[in-house]
Specification:
Elements: H1 30-53, H2 59-81, H3 84-118, H4 124-128, H5 142-173, H6 176-190, H7 194-209, H8 216-240, H9 244-252, H10 257-268, H11 270-284, H12 289-294, H13 313-322, H14 328-360
Helix pairs in contact: 1-2, 2-3, 3-14, 5-8, 5-11, 5-13, 6-8, 7-8, 8-11, 9-10, 11-14, 13-14
Length: 366
């Protein structure tokens, strides 16, 4: 019996395929090690400069220069070990992360500064009394808090319906030259200086009530002028995100267009619209120039928007800082406490907006 053996095939040595994505990889802690080394080098350089000049050590500049040294360093090490593609990825990641940190530094610094100085007068008297007949220490900002809430709330009542209905018109009905003209005017209004809105409100009420008239309603109108374009643009973008299939399904059931907008389009986009409205309120609640012109300032309580001048928190901060008395620390403490109060009001409004968006957003689950 003869057995046939399979001829052996010659083995050939194939050259490995080189791939820059798998050629090598830096260890996981390598970026942190490189960052620490860059900061150490920058610290050493600034330490030598501080010793030579006899000045204090600048930690902020040392950290900034260290971060700038890290960007080319991580790119170079990744280029040598991992290849061009991963090096470019690490470079872009470092740039994006650096931009984020650079944007957060002033925000965190501002928050810490306001909290640190604002807590000096963050007491019951500050929230229960006004500045009427107060010189020096004591007093509070109750009149400014009430004025801010009244004028901002009135501006929201004026601007939200106008802005929302304008955005509905532009998305659902607007066509041709009129819609383009409205869009152009809204874009122009978005960029007008806030003091122009204050001058407009002051001139408008001076025509009817006489020159020199400053009232809370005039300040509310000035804020409404600033709010309307923000509400229009944000609401318009949210309404455009609603799928047309939802509108067509409603039309197929015989629902009229106005009812489709009320029952389908607006509820679907309510979360985004609420966020846009809160952004517009946060945009105007800290305005000083238009309120200083249109509403003026006072040291006393005023609950009537249509009678007399009305103070607000931004104007209160400005007047306390600009007109310091004796002792000046009391005026500065009140200014910082008012600034902290304004930040807390904006934060509370944003939390309310998130709750509204959560509870009133459409539920798509069964």
């Amino acid at each position: 019996m003869t057995m046939t053996t399979k001829p052996e095939t010659p083995t050939s040595t194939a050259t490995p395929i080189e791939n820059s994505l798998t050629a090598g990889r830096l260890p996981r802690p390598a970026p942190w090690i490189i960052l620490g080394a860059a900061i150490a080098v920058s610290t050493a350089i600034f330490g030598v400069m501080a010793l030579a000049d006899g000045a204090g050590f600048n930690w902020g500049a040392a950290l900034l220069v260290g971060a700038l040294l890290y960007i080319p360093a991580i790119w170079l090490f990744s280029m040598l070990v991992e290849g061009r593609r991963r090096a470019m990825d690490r470079l872009v990641t470092a740039l994006v992360t650096g931009a984020f940190v650079l944007a957060m530094i002033p925000l965190i610094s501002l928050t810490i500064t306001v909290i640190t100085y604002g807590l000096n007068r963050f007491d019951a008297e500050f929230f229960t009394s006004s500045m009427r007949n107060v010189t020096g220490e004591g007093g509070g900002a109750l009149h400014a808090i009430v004025g801010t809430l009244l004028m901002t709330g009135t501006a929201a009542i004026i601007s939200i319906p106008i802005g929302l209905m304008t955005s509905v018109y532009l998305v659902e009905y607007g066509r041709g030259q009129l819609a383009r003209g409205i869009t152009f005017l809204v874009d122009v209004m978005t960029g007008i200086p806030s003091i122009v809105a204050g001058l407009f409100a002051y001139a408008l009420f001076s025509i009817f009530l006489g020159p020199g008239t400053r009232t809370g309603i005039a300040g509310a109108v000035a804020l409404a002028v600033l709010m309307i374009p923000v509400v229009v643009r944000s609401s318009e973008e949210m309404l455009r995100l609603v799928p047309n299939e939802l509108r067509e399904a409603s039309f197929a059931l015989g629902v009229p267009k106005w009812l489709t907008i009320v029952k389908v389009v607006l509820p679907t986009s309510i979360a985004g619209i609420t966020t846009g409205v809160m952004l517009s309120i946060a945009r105007v609640i800290g305005e000083t120039a238009p309120l200083l012109i249109a509403a003026g300032f006072t040291q006393s309580m005023n609950w009537n928007l249509f009678d007399g001048r009305m103070s607000s928190l931004p104007v209160f901060v400005y007047t306390q800082y600009a007109n310091q008395g004796n002792p000046p620390e009391a005026y500065l403490d009140r200014a910082w406490a008012a600034a902290l109060t304004l930040i807390l009001i904006v934060m509370a409004l944003n939390l309310i907006a998130r709750l509204v968006a959560r509870f009133f957003a459409p539920k798509f689950g069964r």
